User: What shape does this take?
Amino acid sequence: MEESIKYLKEQFELGELDIRTCSPVVLAYIGDAVYELVIRTVLVCRGGRQANTLHKRASSYVKASAQAAMIEALQEDLTEDEMQVYKRGRNAKTVSMAKHATMHDYRHATGFEALMGYLYLTDQMKRMIDLVKLGLEKTGGTP
Assistant: This one.
């Protein structure tokens, strides 16, 4: 699994990305998708449900308030580098905001998504999955 992004980069002949110059909003963009894919994978593999039911369950884990709660629960478990990425994402200037989120939740969720994007793009899927699992355990959420 750790080599999935490496293989993707090879097959599409993608150059190396300087993660330090990557916008935190761009990291959040990819992180949002990767995090949702992890949650959807867990839900699908835990049992066959209708797609509509799966969507509703997934939405409860990927909404801004749930992500904000997760990152707040995880802060003591983050490395210094991970905390810096999270803070960059949290403090990033964004053009819009989620419809049903408070500014606090939206900013913290953006930081969480930036961290997920950073871990994915730096080939740290195992770490990302471990943090998601720990965050779910700490917040009492189990898909």
